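Example record

The entry below shows one chain as it appears in the dataset: sequence first, then structure tokens.
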Amino acid sequence: MLLVLWKRWFTHAQASSSQDDGETTELRVAAIQEGDENLREALIIQYRPFIAKTASRFCRRFIDPDRDDEFSVALAAFDEAINRFSPEAGGRFIGFAETVITRRLIDHVRQEQRHSASVPYSSLADPDDDGEGVLSRIESAAALEIYERDLAAERRKAEIAMLSEQLAQFGIRFADLAEGSPRHRDSRLTLLGIGKRLAGNPALYQALLDKRQLPVKELCISESVSRKTVERHRKYLIAVSLIAGGPYPCLQDYINPEPGGKERV
């Protein structure tokens, strides 16, 4: 499963397609932060189409700047991005602004959902809009679900990159894990348990990190397993231990069987 994730998020990685007028925009934002309010107004006017497009893409419908609350939320978020942008953090202003707009729209949708849950369903329908208000909320909720799914994928991608770097310190590649993965389900579950218990043993886990090698002798004694078994699956056990004991909340789901015994590894 880890090798599948690696291929999915790294061999087909694409460069960001976001484009703007480069350093000019960052320089203008810096001038605004220094107090040039006239330039702020001009920048906001210039980027109104971008703001509307970002809001429309999130909501999965056309957003009318003159009628829809979502545009007002996005506009305020763009202004917030101007105030908060820092070139030292890396990245372009336009990408940062898109992130802030999306987050504020998510907050807006969640607030609307909480409000909808507190009022009778019949009050959601406006007799003059033929149900468009309800449809708008459904579309916004769908957009939120898609965004959060994409965000989870990005987090998994980042964790895979971090894990790849850590495994490299042990001389392990993802291809090694695919080749050395135990074939039988019972064997996999047994090794997963051993790897996770190793991560939960402070002394053994620290020895693994410090020496960059599996504490084979101690593991054989504590787990009552043969040295041959541990040596044969050394790379697999190291990978499981690093995931279980490291900052990998997304990947940790893949070393835990799902309810009902369904495997994820």
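Notes for this example: The two ends are 5 Å apart (CA to CA). Residues 22-156 form one domain.
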